[in-house]
Amino acid sequence: MNNKIKRSLVGLGAVVILWGSTVAFSEPGSDTDPLVTLSYVNKAVEGVKVYIDEKIAAISIISGSTGGANVSNELVIVNVNKGDYLIGKAGTELILRGGKAKVVGGPLGGLSDVTKGDELNHDQAVSHNHLLIIPRSDERGIYATEDAIFMVKGEYEIK
Description:
This protein is α+β, with helices and mostly antiparallel strands and 159 residues long. It contains two helices and ten strands, in the order H-H-E-E-E-E-E-E-E-E-E-E.
């Protein structure tokens, strides 16, 4: 009986040693390992950061290539001298804050007066504090009949 217990203990010891060596020498954080290690998470997060940085750089290149003034999403104050034109690109928003100006229409129409819900055609006077939108990039804009102050969002040029 004593011999039987010794054999059982030796066999059990061999199994424990074999199992322990398997655990000790296995590679943690591999694709087959069901547990996730910190190094694996850090590696995955770093890959996502690189991907996001590449996309941000691509967007910056695209938005930077359009050129023009005020391509940001902010309203800026623009002073337009008497006799000058403010010509906007498609989607440019204008608000006359001071002075007087008239609409410069394009071949397909004028400017959209969003405040009034109407279209302003070529040579019509621009009302103060009305939001105007330039629908196309076809040389539409305003002509200052006296020094004028505009709030502008979008691309424009003064001629």
